[in-house]
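Late entry, iron/sulfur cluster complex.
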Amino acid sequence: MSWEGYNYEDVRRAAEETTSHLTPVSLHFLENCVSCALCEVNCPYTPVGEEYGPVSKAEPLRNIYRGKVNILPRLFPWLFGAKLPKTKEELDKWVDLAYHCTNCGLCYITCPFGIHSGEMIKTLRGFLAKTGRIPSLLKLMVDAETSGMFAENPGFRGLWEDVIRKTLEVANVEFDRKGAKYLYMPSLAEAMITPGAIPATARILSKLGLNWTMPRNPLSIRAPIGSLAGDDESVRVVAKRIYDYIKSIGAEYVVFSDGGYPYTFFRFDLPRIVGEEPSFKVVHVVELLVDALREGKVKFKQTQERITWHSPCKMGRFGGLIEEPVEVLSSISQNFVKLKSHGLFSKCCGGGGSIACIVPPTQEFMEKVMGIPLKVSENEKAFLDKLYRDMLIAGREKVQEIKESGASTVVTACIGCIHTLGFTTRAYDVKVTLKTLAEVVAEALD
Amino acid sequence: MDLLDLAIYVLPPYVVATLAFGVAYRLSRYLFLWKRGYSAPRRARPIGKLLVGLVVTFLDPLVQAAKKRKSDFVGGLIALHILGVIPLIFLLSQHVAMFSYWIPLYSLLKPFAIPSSITSASQYFFANVLPASEMGWVFTNSVWGPLTLILNGDLLAILAIIGVSYKLGDKLVRLYHRLRHVRAGDFFDLALLLSILVTGFLATHHLPSPDVTTYRFMLGLHILLAELLVALLPFTKFWHFVFGYWYGKLHEWYELKFNRGSL
Ligand code: SF4
Ligand code: SF4
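Prediction complete; structure with ligand written out below:
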């Protein structure tokens, strides 16, 4: 199977597998949409085109579902919109739709019926993956992560070793130490995109006087990256590997500095995937900081700099950490300012859900790091070029908010957000410094 | 037996049976799919905030619509739902009388019944004409008082017809734009609702002609179409006001607010 191919048998089998795991919640998402299209108003991709509104992007999954699960649509598919892609072009269109979604969840809270179209679009990606349609770079990373090969790539190794060296300069860490109460879990992706966040977090943990450790070698590229492609099998393999490692350390708390999907994945999804109630608690470093601040255990150097906080969708909307970063940052800067959409409805940066990780400039960067040239077909190249242009449109509103805030530094805690905001602020010529929360805090530590 | 007799005396048991089957079928699917899974410990948030969050969860889409899609807010929500079909279905005096016949407890809502036309209220409030009959007094002295100038079947039906027509128009535009979420069922449901509203309005006004046969036909047709809607309720998107809306928003509150603490 390849990006270019089309085989109806594969499509049919993929549809069969995709509809074989219904839950009450996914059934609700599939069945109870009244197609009012209100979800469109907040989706970052609607400005790219009406066809990218959440309800329209989720419709292909409903097309699959109706034909497999309901009796009347089986008998009269044309009347009930029960269909599978019949041609390569149609399949390509479905790919285009599925990869114009960051799974930010704005549609979920905007919908009068609580339908999370983003989650359905993720399932649709799973269907497409089963037909051979995964963007090449994402596929490469999923395979490398599942097999563990990523750890052997000299480029990746170099980046990781660099970060380890910098970490040792600021903190006296004993790696992989069994019995540590706190286990810090940085990822290889952080070493690539926000390398400063890892030593910064190490500094914070040491400053807080915690009994902590971290892995000497990365355990994944970034959480199970397969979850971005809807590859459940890869997710299970990688999650289990990391879970076993955490258990081998016996930590009470697992700490994340990346507030993107790794945090919510380990905090909320892991128990379901490994089928166990974990014996540890997953926290983001901001939670430790808020506790320490409230207990008077930490003090910050004050700054007058006008800083703002971009809330990553996973950490805020899906992780419940909306006001905690504000509490920490406003105790650092007296000029802290909230963005217009701060809160539950915080606007997405436009590049999550793997989009910013697969667009052409990232591909070039990854090729350099890995030392592997990646060949993509003309067809896929056209798709990726368009995706990049569209991502910049999707990120426009966030950049506008940043501009209006007048902030000189934008702080966030998701590497995907930092990566995307790098592209979008440059594209709209908004000059701001982008920093991770851990870096800002570490700089302000007395 | 004419259409009215058929609709009133013959069909109701079949309609109720189909509805009951449909409701049982749809609800049972949710029950059968439920499996106990492992979940993360929830994030502690104060109960007061969680309750406010519950109300806000239901209000959020309305606020978003009011801010960002005004046409839908006015046409779809206010005209069609809030002022249109909801009070019409549940409080129009004829409907209250009918529901009370089937479900005696429903008669508790009689004081809130809405008159079918503006006539008695407008005469009473504007021309100072006292109602000649007992029935007239019931409406002019109802809890709605002068509000019956607005809250009456005629006006609400017109608003609801405008609302449904707006929705139909919106679907047609979307169809023209080849948006893939527009489906045949949307048109069927809206057309059915529109026919019920129009036939109800015509029957109340003894239109298109005042003779008894036409009246019985129009009222019969109105009731028959309403019965069709009730029977199809679990199999169409009309299911949203019985189940989808409540389940969806409650689940969203449970997942995001209660479990993850996103307030
Ligand atoms: S807002 Fe909800 S019900 Fe309306 S179209 Fe979007 S997903 Fe469907
Ligand atoms: S999850 Fe976000 S990007 Fe995806 S459809 Fe919903 S609002 Fe749009």
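Residues A 33-39, 54-55, 111, 113, 115, 117 surround iron/sulfur cluster (ligand 1) (CB under 6 Å). Will revisit in the morning.
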